[in-house]
């Protein structure tokens, strides 16, 4: 089956009076990658232990294991911390945010520009937080 664009799906959704029919007709179009699945795939590509990831992301190992097991839902800021810890790309970060139901990083906001810049340049989390603090912006943790 050919993949429909998000715009096409949106138009179809708004013009379809029967939601059940829309869901049935587009079952194969829905994204079924969970945040945990995407996170696990990114983690598996990296040569890093979960203990090291927890340290680099500024979270406890217990919390990280709860995330990977699906027992804990990540806040947007915690998800960003893990993305920084994994040194993923900005595109991968935006995809993770979107999959989790969060807004992508928006460069018109100073805080978000600082975070995005740090992700692009693989800046350690502590340095990103220091910069956020010096700019009177909320730190990631």
The largest sheet, given as strand count, sense and whether it forms a barrel, is: none
Strand runs, count:
0
Briefly note the structural class of the backbone: mainly alpha
The geometry reads as: globular
Q: What is the H/E string?
A: HHHHHHHHH
Which spans of ≥5 residues are poorly predicted at pLDDT below 50? none
Can you count the helices?
9
Alpha carbon gap, first and last residue: 43 Å
Q: Helix amount, in percent?
A: 55-70%
Q: Rg to the nearest angstrom?
A: 18 Å
What is the arithmetic mean of pLDDT? 93
**Estimated share of beta-strand residues:** under 5%
Provide structural commentary:
The chain is mainly alpha-helical and 141 residues long. It is 62% helix and 0% strand. It is built from nine helices and no strands. Helix 4 (50-57) crosses helix 5 and helix 4 packs across helix 6. The longest helix is centred in the first third of the chain and has 11 residues, at 35-45. The N and C termini lie far apart (43 Å). The model has no long low-confidence stretch (mean pLDDT 93).
């Amino acid at each position: 089956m050919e993949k429909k664009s998000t715009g096409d799906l949106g138009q179809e959704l708004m013009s379809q009076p029967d939601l059940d029919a829309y869901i049935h007709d587009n079952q194969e179009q829905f994204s079924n990658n969970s945040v945990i699945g995407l996170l696990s795939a990114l983690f598996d590509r990296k040569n890093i232990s979960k203990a090291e990831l927890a340290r680099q992301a500024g979270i406890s190992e217990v919390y990280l294991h709860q995330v990977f097991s699906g027992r804990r839902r990540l806040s947007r800021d915690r998800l960003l911390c893990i993305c920084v810890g994994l040194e993923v790309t900005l595109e991968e970060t935006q995809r993770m945010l979107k999959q989790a139901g969060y807004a992508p990083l928006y460069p018109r906001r100073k805080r978000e520009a600082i975070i995005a810049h740090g992700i692009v340049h693989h800046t350690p989390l502590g340095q990103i937080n220091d910069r956020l603090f010096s700019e009177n912006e909320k730190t990631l943790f």
